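**Backbone shape codes:**
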Amino acid sequence: MRHSAPLLALALFTVTGAAAAQGFSTVEERMSATEFREAGLDTLSEAQLQALNAWLQRDRRCVAADAAMDSRGLRPEALDDEADIISTLPGAFTGWQGGEVFTLANGQVWRAIDPGSALRGVNLTNPRVTISKGLFGAWRLKVEGYNASVKVERVE
């Protein structure tokens, strides 16, 4: 379905205005008009575009975890909020047995502090990981595609 220019402008203004009030940049604001068109987003209905922006707004918590770092590549406030930290472990990854140090692609360094936890027998390259705040303020690292997690502490 193709939008007429006035209808698309009104839809973008409505979505953009509501999103801006919440400190959120919509997909229309993030992309140039050419990128928007080349990605085929100009063919979305108003409802589809609003759904996409709603998803982006929900997902921005995770994206912000990687993007909002200080000059050393660290995000110290990550330890004070509830946002998941999503990154990758560059290079070969074979699991953990306790005490390992994990250097994420975003520059953060975490150490496994759960001696009873192990993930063995994996052979991955650049696996995606999520570090989430759990019970009692503990942080847990989980490798995408595996059910195991390990309690970690921030080193750098």
Summary: Residues 11 and 47 are 9 Å apart (CA to CA). DSSP finds four helices and eight strands in the chain. Confidence is low (pLDDT under 50) at residues 15-22, 70-80.
